[in-house]
Design a protein that fits this description.
single chain, 421 residues, mainly alpha, Growth Hormone, Chain: A, 18 helices, 79% helix, 0% strand
Length: 421
């Protein structure tokens, strides 16, 4: 690609290895998320619809609620041992969890133990995924300079979307052919092992090596004073990170439940429709990745924000006027295409955090945003829509949008200040 023509062989190799690894990692992570409508019936007891919704919310949230713990663990490793070690370890843990899930007995076979074991496997996957994407993004942010840095880091978001979409495609194919769902997790385990082997050959980033050297030279007068985290910048990043999980939940999970409950879709049909949505998501990430080489990333986020605002603020209205599953699909695609997330500007945000604290704080902020929003959305929408109808979703949507706007304005001010120095 022309936007990477200025990179040397080592940097191109790093972009390739990390993109492939991120693709493999998210293929494994999203398998259960997208198959939840089918697997929850196998690993959890069957109950009334309301209780089933709460159990489904619990199963979904376990993917994210333990991520802050993973952020501390892998953040510590990433900041004190190295970026390379982290991206190798995370994909290895993902592979092991897939092996367990591929061989796990169902609820009908071993009872509630199946529910607990699958939950533990999801926790391991969520924690390892936490170090994966952040580690890869930081690695390329510290290795490559602008403007190639922007599409290089954004390419990882595209790879994660492609991994999720591919997991949906393979899941849909296996189900359509009547094959055993365990085959999918077996495939996930194998490809994760391939990703582990590939990343062993990466070198540590120059920024990390230089920062560690400065620590060693602490006793000399040349050593710089320790850098501090700006609390306002940290808060701004957290608020911006909250937007994507809301858009993802509304598009894939909430609309998926509507298809199942209001349009009598089978789990297989929900998976198939979500696969179409994932293709749109992949296309959106690819488009914005390419544009980031020519257009400043924060400008792209601003455009996405205004379009997304019009779509999601009107979400309750659209829901109340849906009459066909095709209209649901159109709504899902609009939400996911213009979802106001951090990509392709993540590398712009990361540079405002000290190198040797960067991994821990950024990964924890990312993890906390997912845990908070997915828990609130999963359980909150069950009750908000039950008592207030579709309009109840605005109680969650409006504050998240306001927070995103605050965060974007904060980073715009930082960029203007830096350009004027």
């Amino acid at each position: 690609m022309a936007m990477f023509s200025s990179l040397d062989k080592e940097k191109k190799r790093a972009v390739s290895l990390l993109s492939i690894g991120t693709f493999l990692e998210f293929f494994d992570l999203m398998l259960y998320v997208h198959l939840a409508v089918l697997l929850n019936e196998l690993f959890f007891p069957k109950t009334d619809p309301h209780t089933a919704s709460l159990l489904a919310a619990f199963a979904f949230c376990t993917t994210y609620i333990f991520r802050p713990i993973g952020a501390f663990i892998f953040g510590f490793i990433g900041d004190y041992v190295g970026r390379k070690v982290t991206v190798v370890l995370t994909i290895m843990f993902m592979s092991l969890s897939c092996v367990f899930m591929a061989n796990l007995p169902t609820y009908a076979q071993i009872g509630i133990a199946a529910s607990w074991i699958v939950t533990i496997c999801r926790i391991i996957q969520s924690m390892s995924a936490m170090g994966e994407l952040t580690g890869a993004q930081l690695y390329l942010s510290e290795l490559i300079k602008p403007p190639a840095r922007y599409p290089a880091v954004a390419l990882l978001a595209f790879a994660s979307a492609l991994g999720g979409g591919t997991s949906l495609a393979i899941a849909s194919l296996v189900i359509h052919l009547g094959l055993n769902w365990r085959i999918i997790f077996g495939i996930g385990a194998v490809i994760a092992l391939v990703g582990t082997a590939a990343r062993v050959f990466l070198k540590e980033t120059p920024d990390f090596r230089n920062a560690k050297q400065q620590i060693k030279d602490k006793t000399t007068s040349m050593a710089p004073p320790p850098e501090r985290i700006n609390s306002k910048t940290l808060c701004a990043l957290f608020l911006m990170d909250c937007m994507w999980p809301l858009c993802f939940y509304l598009s894939y999970i909430h609309c998926g439940l509507i298809l199942k409950n209001s349009f009598s879709f089978s789990p297989e049909q929900v998976i198939h429709q979500n696969f179409i949505v994932s293709i749109v998501q992949i296309g959106a990430y690819l488009l914005f990745t390419c544009l980031s080489y020519r257009i400043y990333p924060l400008k792209i986020l601003k455009i996405k924000l205004f379009i997304s605002l019009a779509i999601i603020i009107g979400y309750p209205y659209w829901l109340n006027n849906l009459s066909t599953d095709l209209q649901v699909l159109l709504l899902q695609c609009c939400i996911i295409f213009f979802a106001a997330d951090a990509s392709p500007a993540t590398s712009v945000f990361y540079k405002y955090f000290p190198v040797l604290k960067r991994f821990t704080y950024i990964s924890f902020t990312y993890a906390l945003s997912r845990a908070v929003i997915y828990v609130i959305a999963s359980f909150g929408l069950v009750y908000l829509t039950k008592y207030l109808g579709s309009w109840g979703s605005l109680i969650l949507i409006i504050p998240v949008f306001a927070g995103y706007m605050f965060g974007l304005q904060h980073f715009e001010k930082l960029e203007k200040y830096n350009r004027n120095i």
